Amino acid sequence: MSSITPPTPAVELQFAPKPQLEAEKGPAAQAADRRWAEALDAQRNDVATPNKLEVSLDPSAGRFVQLLTDANTEETLRKYPSEGQLAYSRAVMAYMRALYGE
């Protein structure tokens, strides 16, 4: 009958660490670094940064409206869709309501 003790351990393989190659960052990584640095500078200089997004439904136009504002100054930085697009949507919806009697 053979012994229950485990056999002697095999020689452990030692893997050499992979050499770290000094490679230049690609264009996408460079652009990301630039944008990150610009965002940090804007925060330091207290430049208006969009940090409040409000989404609401305009019932007369039947569309969602997104307002991007600066939380510090409450200034509207962007609005989508524009007032012209909303006016067009309201006119179309008014026509549809008149046509179908809604």
Radius of gyration: 31 Å
- Span from first to last CA? 93 Å
Mean pLDDT rating: 80
| % residues in beta strands | 15-25%
Shape: elongated
Number of helices: 2
Structural class: alpha+beta
Segments where pLDDT lies below 50 for 5+ residues? none
General description of the model:
With 102 residues, the protein is an alpha+beta fold. The chain is 35% helix and 19% strand. The protein has 2 helices and 3 strands; from the N terminus they run αβββα. Strands 1-2-3 form a 3-stranded antiparallel beta sheet. The longest helix has 18 residues.
Summary, kept brief:
By secondary structure, the chain is an alpha+beta fold. It has two helices and three strands, in the order αβββα. It has a three-stranded antiparallel β-sheet with strand order 1-2-3.
What descriptors fit this protein?
single chain; 102 residues; alpha+beta; 3-stranded antiparallel β-sheet; 2 helices
Walk me through the topology.
Layout: H1 27-44, E1 52-58, E2 63-69, E3 76-80, H2 83-100
Antiparallel strand pairs: 1-2, 2-3
